[in-house]
Input
Amino acid sequence: MKKINTMFWGLMLIMAVFFPVFAGENNMSKLIVQGEGKVIATPDMATIVLGVQTFNVSASGAAAENARLMNETIASLLSAKIAEKDIQTSSFSLKTVPQEEQIALKEMPKDKEFVATNQVIVRLNDTRDVGEVLDAAVSAGSNSIQEVNFDIQDPQPKKDNALTLAIEDARRKAEVAADAAEVKLGKVLEISEGYGYVSATAKSAVFTNVATPIQPGELEVTATVTMTYEIF
Output
């Protein structure tokens, strides 16, 4: 019986020695910080959503008039040196106009009226051409301008710059936090990142010789990071 008790206490002693080591590995102290980086970029491309909407008491009449005006619109875009590959149909529909919609437009309800709608997305590789393109399309018969969006053709360098700033921001916060908490930073255990575009204040410059002034302004490319540090 004495021999068994000695073995039991010997086993308990071994467990007491090794358990704190295992617990320390599973409960490593960590510091999690977030950082943000921002870079201002000038847009160098634009996309325009425009089209033609026509009404007629007959479906064929609405479709024929729409086709005529849309062909003229596309011809004007090609004349403005827009490549065919940069003009893409985004939607086409032919339907009756609901009577409640006619009432909302303060029109006398008709037995049946058809509306044909054709929209295209136009890509421009020079933001200075936006005003001229809009004017050309409207003059040719386009009566629906849905959107004008600005973007960057190659955003990766700006995203990389923003990410670098975000990591520097996170590292600075980690150093401040560690100093305040009187701990030391160890290795980085994990980094996760994200990106986004935010419209910044538009430039004051106005294009000359353009009837419709369009200002691309600037884009704010942002990056965010979450960094996890080991601390001891």
Summary: The longest strand covers residues 185-199. Residues 27-42+155-231 form a domain with the Translation Initiation Factor IF3 fold (CATH 3.30.110.170).
